[in-house]
Amino acid sequence: MSALHRPVYSFLSASPFARPMRKLDLGCGRAAMRWFNRNDHVTYENPEGHTFSLYLRGGTGTFRLDGTHMSGWPGACCLMPHGQSSTWEITSPFEFVHLYLPDREARRLFAETFDRDARLMSLPELTFADRPELAASLRLLAKAAEAGDPLLGEEAMAEIVRRAFADSRPVGTLKGGLAPHARRRVTEFIEAGLGGSLRLRELAEIAHLSEFHFQRSFAASLGVSPSAWIAHRRIERARTLLRAGEPIAGVAVACGYSSQSHLTRAFRDATGRTPAAYRALIDGARRMEEPVSSV
Q: For the residues 30-39, what does the mean pLDDT come to?
């Protein structure tokens, strides 16, 4: 990753004043982080990925210098889109939470969530916006980061994506890619076949394209390659089954992995945790939510 194209958290980590308080890895390059900062001057130069932000405490001493000279406030929402540079001046202490989404992952999430072509995704820049519903979801994300609760973090992220992407509007005319009916047939076929072996030739035949043209069209419309989409859907199914308490060996079979160790490697690569560690976190979070019975 070049110095001129790195995520927002990389710029903040290089600051002598910004301090990370909590981090929650949400897999696939997605993460939630709670930060504290004061007396700082930060420029995000051509940042990688999309960054959602909510001011938790303070913020009235935080200004954006390359736009309107307004200050933040507790509850203010910001969205720094992929590649959009910005400069900020911080004159007093404040705390905030960030959600980081790589651009490819954001497009895949958009296509998956709304069953729409990934190229239709648009994320307009927000600076000190009053968005109560988005703020509520980001506040839930901050709670998840504080508690180290991946289940709550995943739920909050899904809500943030739904609220932020719902207003995406088509820009221009799309050329190439998969037709909507072909995209739907292919993704439904993948979903139904996650427990078995999925072949590129089969998927291309469903779309009535050659394998070469199918790969290019799929990546254009879904944001990622067919293999990356399948890998993600298998991990998502594994998460669901693990949360439901299914045996890990059974989860491996249901998700199309050749063995429990194959699932463990893939799950750790995608989420940073083994299936057993993920389940332990979920069980621990649920125990904390259980009411304490009085004697």
A: 96
